[in-house]
Amino acid sequence: MLAFISLLSCQERLPVPKVAASDDAGIAWYQLLRKASHNQDVDYALIKRQRIVLDQYMVWLAHHGPRTEKYSIREEDRKIVFYANAYNAAVIYAVLQNEPIESVQDVHSGSFRYSNSGFFLGQLFLIDGEWMSLFHLEQDLFLSQFQDPRLHVMLNCASKGCPPVRYWTEQGLERQLDRAWTSYIENNVRKTESGWAVSELFFWYEKDLIGWSDAETLCDYFQRYAKGNFLTWLQEDRSSCTLQSFSYDWSLNDASSSEPVSPQNGD
Q1: What angle do CA 176, 180, 182 make, to 5 degrees?
Q2: Which residue in 49, 60, 170, 247 has the most C-beta neighbors within 10 A?
Q3: What is the full per-residue pLDDT of the chain (267 aa) written as tens digits?
Q4: H or E segment to which residue 38 belongs
Q5: Which ranges in the chain belong to alpha helices (H)?
Q6: Which of 111, 109, 67 is CA-nearest to residue 90?
């Protein structure tokens, strides 16, 4: 208990915006995010110009959610969508609160000064009536509760190595997840001189991909999504699985202008 209290004292509470929020705050945020989401990047300048939309959504998130509204045990998809959208909105809110930054690794909140812990662990957001860090939201409320490897594609970490940011909806969630996860895997595979490599994100969460599926290795897991030469190589290398990794890109996923890709936002 003392350790928990000590941790909280090292964290910084980001202020809840002092604006009124209506029940349609999520709709307004969804519409803005569709315009601001450009493939891997986010038009932060556009969101900043319409900051009231994000602020109202953050106020709404502060007082709604599975805990305060007592979602039933059967409303799993509703919970998944809430947590994913809350996480992504909080990430964008934190970027604007800490600007200018070139990477989330530049943020040193509270007493956290190593790697990217200041951004993901050092900042607290009021969500669903509770002050929480992005790390707590991701690991304790989201991933550990629902245990599906594809859930990793739902969260955007404001970095170019992340999955594209989306506003997720309950309707057609399975289809959204399958399409987004398949696309993210396809876009994060590279041919090397000695074989193939994938983003190191997949190695960070190797236990999730294997433990939450019937796969025995990463090579085994990727076979269900791979195509062409990559699939052939995986099948031939299945027993040894010499799959390599390439570095995650932590540079800020900032974009000033681009054509929005609608399927990334709830299609």
Answers
A1: 120
A2: 60
A3: 434 444 555 899 999 999 998 889 999 999 999 999 988 899 999 999 999 999 999 999 999 999 999 999 999 999 999 999 999 999 999 999 999 999 999 998 766 566 678 999 999 999 999 999 999 999 999 999 999 999 999 999 999 999 999 999 999 999 999 999 999 999 999 999 999 999 999 999 999 999 999 999 999 999 999 999 999 999 998 788 999 999 999 999 998 634 444 334 444
A4: strand 37-38
A5: 2-9, 25-36, 44-49, 51-62, 76-98, 117-120, 134-136, 144-146, 173-186, 201-204, 206-211, 218-222, 228-236
A6: 109
Length of the chain: 267
**Tokens in use for 205?**
């969460």
Name the amino acid, one letter, at 191.
Answer: K
Q: 3-class SS at 161?
A: coil
